[in-house]
Amino acid sequence: LCTPERATAAAAVGRGFLPWGGRPAPVFAYRRAVPSDTRSRTLAFPVVVLLVSVTATAGVLVSVRQAVRRQDADRFHVAADRVQDSIQDRLATYIALLRATAGLRDAAAMDTRAFRQYAERLEMQRRYPGVQGIGFSQRIRADEVEPVVNRLRASGNPTFRIWPDQPRDEYHSIIHLEPPDQRNLAALGYDMFTEPTRHEAMARARDTGEPAVSGVVTLVQEIDEAKQPGFLIYLPVYEGGGVPGNVEARRERLTGFVYSPFRAGDLFAGILGSNPRPRAGFELYDGPAAGGALLYRTQRLPPRAQQTERQIHVGGRAWTARIFALPALTETS
Q1: Full DSSP string of 94-133
Q2: pLDDT means per 10 residues in the chain (333 residues)?
Q3: The pTM is what?
């Protein structure tokens, strides 16, 4: 109920006076009276929330980036393993081929036609892509040169000759080399023991009884202007079969070597296949990557590319594969 007293008080308040004689504080006066620390706390809360959000987002981004880098590193090492394994496995296959051929104890006595029939049964072009051929180099003592040359000429090679033709105590002439393409025909009769790099590998194979890989050479088969680096794998053959028990006996009973020449470009292109988007490329060196002889490279090392070096031991030699990531490595399927 509105009593006269309440009406009088309301009118006083409307004029700015309280019934007991005072004035009410203006609204802005109350606002100024809010403590400053309360205003600071009110403003600090959203700033803290913003900082926490930014920090959390940055942490997530860093974690995601690290996870992606780890994933790329894992992919790269898998790709590097595949490159290394592909090279080692293919060379092991070629050495197995030479071991099988070394079982032909009568290779030195075989005529050209018989050795060719044997090589055709191997189906090298299909089963062993990248190999230039398979052959037999016979050890010939000085007093045996003329009879051996006459026999080979009569057995299907009328122009056969041993070269170089300077006199020496013994010769190691290529008497068989298949398939009979233009490159291989150019090498028939060549005495590989006269060339230092080949000589070292042949002597090592002879003395150990194990397969020996040569250093980098230019093959006699390189008859074109565009030449590729090459190497050879030798496996010794001894009189009576098997491997004699000591070095002296191995040197005495050596009858020759089964061997394969390799053009590095053809070989490693065959190993890698025809993948249009490989995940890794490589450079292959005979010896260390720094200072070694370059055997093959897929392409130039890209700037800032992830890379690793792998050692490949084959036939008594140490090769170094410098393997590097290519853009396709980080592409998602």
Answers
A1: HHHHHHHHHT-TTGGG--HHHHHHHHHHHTHHHHSTT---
A2: 53 49 50 58 69 72 65 86 93 93 78 89 86 95 95 90 95 96 95 98 98 97 91 95 95 96 91 76 95 93 92 96 89 55
A3: 0.79
